[in-house]
Specification:
Layout lengths: L1 H17 L29 E2 H15 L6 E2 L1 H11 L7 H14 L7 E2 H15 L6 E2 L1 H9 L11
Antiparallel strand pairs: 1-4, 2-3
Helix pairs in contact: 2-5
Length: 158
């Protein structure tokens, strides 16, 4: 038994020596953020300008508009949220918050969110994150903005 354990330990230690060397050079690709505001940094300069933000939001609208009718139903707007949560049924509180958000977006109260209404909210979101009003934002600036309480003075410490 001791011989078997010794042999197994030797193979575990020596295993990497028998592995073929990696002849493929590692590609040096900068990693792009796929979450948060930085997923819209199309040119990779470390900030998101208003044009990148708008392009990202227009793309997002198209993704959400499952039936391609140019407007979002409440189901379309929150389909990704439901999918991300698995099969969990939203709580009553979540349903109320979703309905309130949908009603806020639906400016003309026609029961659907048009692209213009969606983009108007996207513009307000960008403006909230752009503390120093230079038409650019990044993760740190946006996080700082989202920590502020409504009505609190904006300070950009970039």
């Amino acid at each position: 038994m001791l011989k078997l354990v010794s042999l197994a330990a030797a193979l575990l230690v020596a295993g990497p020596a028998f592995a073929a060397p990696d002849t493929q050079p590692a590609e040096a690709k900068p990693t792009r953020a796929t979450k948060g505001v930085m997923r819209y940094d199309a040119n990779g300069d470390g900030t998101v300008d208003r044009a990148e933000w708008n392009a990202g939001q227009e793309s997002r609208f198209k993704q959400l508009d499952a039936n391609g009718d140019g407007k979002l139903s409440q189901d379309e707007l929150f389909a990704r949220a439901s999918a991300a949560g698995g099969n969990a049924t939203p709580t009553e509180r979540q349903l109320r918050r979703r309905a309130a958000y949908f009603n806020r977006l639906d400016g003309d109260k026609d029961g659907a969110v048009s692209k213009d209404e969606f983009m108007a909210q996207a513009s307000r979101n960008f403006a909230r994150c752009d503390l120093n009003r230079d038409d650019r934002t990044d993760t740190a600036e946006c996080r700082q903005a989202l920590r502020r309480k409504p009505g609190q003075a904006a300070k950009a410490d970039r």
